[in-house]
Every structure is written in structure tokens, then in C-alpha cells.
Amino acid sequence: MAENLIISAGSKEEKYKDLLPQIKGLVTGEPNLMANLANVAAALKETFGFFWVGFYLVEHDELVLGTFQGPIACTRIRKGKGVCGTSWLEDKTLLVPDVDAFPGHIACSSASKSEIVVPIRKYDQVVAVLDVDSDLLNDFDETDQKYLEELMLCVSDCF
Predict the structure, then answer these.
(1) CA-to-CA distance for 16 and 123, rounded, in angstroms?
(2) What number of helices (H) and strands (E) belong to the chain?
(3) Structural domain tally of the chain?
(4) 61 is in which domain, residue-wise?
(5) Is residue 92 part of a domain?
(6) Cβ–Cβ under 8 Å, residues 130 and 153
(7) CATH for 59
(8) CB 51 within 8 A of CB 108
(9) Which residues contact 140 (CB under 8 A, 6 or more apart)?
(10) Is 4 exposed, middle or buried (0-12, 13-18, 19+ CB in 10 A)?
(11) Residues near 31 by Cβ (< 8 Å), separated by ≥ 6?
């Protein structure tokens, strides 16, 4: 893939449908995990204008900040803490329409209003999570969940 994304100006679903094969082409054959995660974060941020997009990698009993696009972020998150740690613990995608209403939310930035976190699995265990924040309330829905889960299946091959 070239270094330019070609994304339609259509609906959110149309944008995901344009983006997914380009990301798959970008990571296929590239052996460096950090390069792949960095490009995925950049592609999602560029396409959708999300406030923050990044990865947290499982290291022992914590999630450790990996590559991201956006303002500085929390460096370490314990299993079961905040949205990311809860997604890891429960091994499921979490859609949070209002982060202030999520029990135990970790506010890395007060500008974050809604969030989606998608676990990345390798050999039936969570190895990382994709964390996407918006500065708008209720910015994520089942369309985001469907396509981000599909994308993380592809990304899991990078681990």
C-alpha cells in the first residue's frame, strides 16, 4: 500500500469498508509489531478524526502504553482497572457512551467523553487492547465495534 489512504466521504461504514483492506495490505508482510501498530493507529485517527487512538500491550499483570496518536496518555493500567483493564479482564469489547458514567474510569484526559476498547487475542489470550477515545459523547456504536473487531483479528497476526 502507498503511504496515502483512499477513503470515501460516505458513511462511517463506507469509510471502514475502504479502510480495512488498506490496513490489511499495510501490515501484511511487515514483521515489525510497533511499525504495524503505529500505522494502524495513524490510519484510524486520520480516517475518523478520533481524539485518541492507541494500543496497550499486556506485560505481566499490566497493560503498558504502546504506539498511539493523540495527547499523552496513561502509561500503565492494571488488569480490571478503567475501561482498558476491564476489557482485558472480561476479554470483550466495551462501548462506553459516557466515560464519566463508567465505574472506575481512568481519566488520562478530561477531554475524553466516550470510548471503545477492543481486545486483541493471540492463541486464545488477550495480548493487547485497542483503545479509541472521542471528545464527543456517545460517538461509538455497533458499526465501530463490528469493524474494529474485524480489524483487530487482522492485527492479531502481527503478534
Answers:
(1) 26
(2) 4, 6
(3) 1
(4) 12-156
(5) yes
(6) no
(7) 3.30.450.40
(8) no
(9) 95, 96, 97, 114, 115, 116, 132, 134
(10) exposed
(11) none
Closest CA to 57 of 31, 72, 32, 75: 75
Got the DSSP string for 118-137? EEEEETTEEEEEEEEEESST
Residue 151 Cα to chain centre, angstroms: 9
CA angle 13–52–5, rounded 5-degree value? 50
Residue 132: strand pairing partners: 53, 116
Q: Cell triple for residue 13?
A: 461504514
Alpha helices in the chain (DSSP H): 12-27, 33-48, 82-90, 142-156
pLDDT in tens, the chain (159 residues): 456 778 878 899 999 999 999 999 989 999 999 999 999 999 999 999 999 999 999 999 999 999 999 999 999 999 999 999 999 999 999 999 999 899 877 777 778 999 999 999 999 999 999 999 999 999 999 999 999 999 999 999 999
Q: Which amino acid is at 139?
A: D
Would 28 be classed as within a structural domain? yes
Q: What is the DSSP letter of 55?
A: E
